[in-house]
Amino acid sequence: CLLDGLLLLALAPPGAAGARANMPVGTPIHRLMVDPYIAVVAGALATCNIPLAFLEPTIANWMEESMGASEWEVGLTWLPAFFPHVLGVYVTVRLAAVYPHLQWFYGALGMAIIGASSCLVPACRNFGQVIVPLCGICFGIALVDTALLPTLAFLVDVRHVSVYGSVYAIADISYCVAYALGPIVASQIVHTMGFVQLNLGMGLANMLYAPVLLFLRNVCQMKPSHSERNILLEEGPKGLYDTIKMEERKG
What we know:
Number of helices: 13
Helix content: over 70%
Order of helices and strands: HHHHHHHHHHHHH
Distance between the termini: 50 Å
Strand content: under 5%
CATH superfamily: MFS general substrate transporter like domains
Mean pLDDT: 86
Structural class: mainly alpha
């Protein structure tokens, strides 16, 4: 962390107070939260991370009880899933470069993969089998994250002010909601209903949320909106209507 901080100071030193004063003011986080497009993305980020957050504290006991897994198998459960996660990031980046208008589809596909993989976990009977759905979950999470995080930035560009701290704070909040509930809610569900019901519920939640991303299908067609500051300082009136609106703003 110390090395990272020193590198940040060297590569991105804090600006002078005057430069800071000239920076645009970002949209307040509470206004971003009520934007329906941003809310849909935040909900997808939270939902897609629920299986990972809920399985991490519960799958070890289940593996020991249901398949007699050894300690080294429990410890290495998540290691193979790292590789499909990296593959998912790479695939999504390449697809987005060719078909950028399908970002919502990549997210929906990822949630469908997560849902199907979550439902398959309870059917596994040995260590080799359980790796497959876990790899599917991590691959799907990579699709959702890699497709929807840039969508947040684009939404801020076209619907708000191009300052990204607050919108990515919303993304972090979405992750934290899933991981904060994981150890508490997941263990309670396993205790009262069972591990199978936990996985079926998580899979169903992702399957049902995937069609909601259809709401984002026209995001790529949105045109950037100019803030009042840009209109006043950068654009002159182009007609009678614009002149009247500018006079109202000045007033």
